[in-house]
């Protein structure tokens, strides 16, 4: 069960096993910010350097900030910790453990005034079944005829069952035209998407007849499970397709055809965690819109407006995304730019100026450093225009061009009001980048550049990959005023595609993850002599 506050319908990126030298693990609710006990290790007697056997298995979502708290106790009784001695605690995000060197981090224990509490060593391991990919092929025989002037145009829809009894779509096959005996192409799907690691969880498969207007006709359904599907590695498996409505109405009803699982195989592939554990860094760059269309920063209607009580819309988006992605960049130095402003003292219009006013080194120290430089720029530059994306995209592309070994993956966050003046040049920049480099563009409001449905194209060339994610900020403003929840929802959708984009890049370049660095044992304290 996910501890992160995601709905049961969400599929975690993977499952992570945490090894900790502590007693009690707490997780924080995304909505209420309350800490809840997740689990406890066993008690180990008479040692200052316990190495616990019991592991914590957590659902890991790259796109969410999953806060953890580790409390360490000295317990006199194995069965009663109602009055334990508190030895210290550590706070950190799960992403910090994953993003640490070799997915290991060491943190000092705090919480006891005037006392050094020691340290806690955390390691993360991905469970093996999270990297499995199932490949299967199916055909059907004697399906019901649905089209008046033809036969049927069948396709399959796969659903994963959830713990609350609902179903979530996880795959659609292609449509095979005008036949009652279709043979679908083989397809691959992550096992976690099919059953979320539960091999006996119900998988429902619906059979439809495709219609051009989208009102597809239901032919029938059948259920199975990953465990049952896997039996097809040795033999064909035949399922009856049943239409519950027909079955109730017709006494002589047998079925609406059959579906046969022709083949089924399982392979393992490299995962996002493999690359991060092997040292791949996410190189995060920010570009913020300083054009006049954003409104006067002193007025509440402006996207740049900072009230005494809450962050501006732009600052909120930057903080939400940055606080998650910074865990995967070891030096925590982030280039940050503005565009569309007049710069002092001569009033030159710039479409790519460093927020820290340092042309030689635009890096800011941490997300707090980016925010500080952003606030300073708001006080010194004049919002102007027009809105050009291409200059800053090309700037990041030039940096990315210098690194092609997979050690870094470039992510550019563009925060804008969506009024763009150089769409043609921006498309050209995106297509050129996706053809030869390693990064993704994330915009707060540019639907035309999002390649989810139609790949971005320029002068007859198409982007090699979908590297743009459109997220309209207005959809993430919480009506109750809960800014924490708003930021969490925004970051979740902005960042959700990064793991698959990174994997897509690595696969197309045949770049394998490096082996994780060897563990460096922590120095053991010298024994005390009387």
UniProtKB/TrEMBL annotation:
Residues 513-530 have a biased composition (Pro residues). Keywords: Calcium, Metal-binding, Repeat. Residues 1-109, 116-239 form the C2 domain. GO terms for molecular function: calcium-dependent phospholipid binding; metal ion binding. The keyword Disulfide bond does not apply. Pfam families: C2 (PF00168), Copine (PF07002). GO terms for cellular component: plasma membrane. Coiled coil: none annotated. Belongs to the copine family. This is Copine family member 9. It comes from Capra hircus. The gene is CPNE9.
């Amino acid at each position: 069960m996910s501890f992160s506050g995601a709905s049961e319908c969400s599929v975690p990126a993977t499952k992570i096993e945490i090894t900790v030298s502590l007693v009690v693990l707490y997780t924080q609710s995304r909505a209420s910010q309350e800490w809840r006990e997740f689990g406890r290790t066993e008690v180990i007697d008479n040692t200052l350097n316990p190495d616990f056997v019991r592991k914590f298995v957590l659902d890991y979502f790259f796109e969410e900030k999953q806060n953890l708290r580790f409390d360490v106790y000295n317990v006199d009784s194995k069965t009663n910790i109602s009055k334990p001695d508190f030895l210290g605690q550590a706070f950190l995000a799960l992403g910090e453990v994953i993003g640490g060197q070799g997915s290991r981090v060491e943190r000092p224990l705090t919480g006891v005034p005037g006392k050094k509490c020691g340290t806690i060593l955390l390691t993360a391991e991905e469970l093996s079944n999270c990297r499995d990919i199932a490949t299967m092929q199916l055909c059907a025989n004697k399906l019901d005829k649905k089209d008046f002037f033809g036969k049927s145009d069948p396709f399959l829809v796969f659903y994963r069952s959830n713990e609350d009894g609902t179903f979530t779509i996880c795959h659609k096959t292609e449509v095979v035209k005008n036949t009652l005996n279709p043979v679908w192409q083989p397809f691959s799907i992550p096992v976690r998407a099919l059953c979320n690691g539960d091999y006996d969880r119900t998988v429902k498969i619906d059979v439809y007849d495709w219609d051009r207007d989208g009102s597809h006709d239901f032919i029938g359904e059948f259920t199975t499970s990953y465990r049952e599907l896997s039996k097809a590695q040795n033999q064909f498996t035949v399922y009856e397709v049943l239409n519950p409505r027909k079955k109730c109405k017709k006494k002589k009803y047998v079925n609406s055809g059959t579906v046969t699982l022709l083949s089924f195989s399982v392979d393992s592939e490299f995962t996002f965690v493999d690359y991060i554990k092997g040292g791949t860094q996410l190189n995060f760059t920010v570009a913020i819109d300083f054009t006049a269309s954003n409104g006067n920063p002193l007025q509440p209607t402006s996207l740049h407006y900072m009230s005494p009580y809450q962050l501006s819309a732009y600052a909120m988006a930057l903080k939400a995304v940055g606080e998650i992605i910074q865990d995967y960049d070891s030096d925590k130095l982030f280039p940050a730019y503005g565009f569309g402003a007049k710069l002092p003292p001569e009033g030159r219009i710039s479409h790519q100026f460093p927020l820290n006013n340092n042309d030689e080194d635009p890096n800011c120290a941490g997300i707090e450093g980016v925010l500080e430089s952003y606030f300073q720029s708001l006080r010194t530059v004049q919002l102007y225009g027009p809105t050009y994306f291409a200059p800053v995209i090309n700037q990041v592309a030039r940096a990315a061009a210098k690194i092609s070994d997979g050690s870094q993956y470039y992510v550019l966050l563009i925060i804008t009001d969506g009024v763009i003046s150089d769409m043609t040049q921006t498309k050209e920049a995106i297509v050129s980048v996706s053809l030869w480099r390693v990064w993704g563009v994330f915009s707060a409001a540019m639907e035309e550049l999002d390649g989810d449905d139609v790949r971005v194209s320029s002068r007859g060339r198409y982007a090699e990959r979908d590297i743009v994610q459109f997220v309209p900020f207005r959809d993430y403003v919480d009506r109750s005023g809960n800014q924490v929840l708003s930021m969490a929802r925004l970051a979740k959708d902005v960042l959700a595609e990064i793991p698959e984009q990174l994997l897509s890049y690595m696969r197309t370049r045949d770049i394998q993850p490096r082996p994780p660095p060897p563990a460096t044992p922590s120095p053991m304290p010298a024994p005390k002599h009387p």
